[in-house]
Specification:
Layout lengths: L1 E4 L7 E11 L2 E9 L6 H7 L16 E4 L4
Antiparallel strand pairs: 1-4, 2-3
């Protein structure tokens, strides 16, 4: 089981990425906080659904992941 804590005011979406052995025969599941939706960045920009950092801007926040075994 995994718990991910992150600031919702910064990351308002969560992506799920799955690879089924296509890359080096590795099966992978990635869950990550995201600032944009949908996947197509040009569309997300057009719809105003993504964040932007201007040059020399810094974004600092805390993301916490807690992993435990299932019982």
């Amino acid at each position: 089981m995994a718990t991910i804590r992150f600031p919702r005011e910064v990351f308002n979406n969560v992506w799920l990425f799955l690879a089924y052995g296509g890359w080096r025969s590795v099966y992978t599941a990635v869950i990550e906080p995201s600032t944009s939706y949908p996947y197509d960045l040009a569309q997300a920009i057009k719809e105003g659904h993504c964040s932007r950092l201007d040059p020399d801007m810094v974004l600092s926040c805390e993301i916490e992941v807690e992993l435990s075994t299932l019982t």
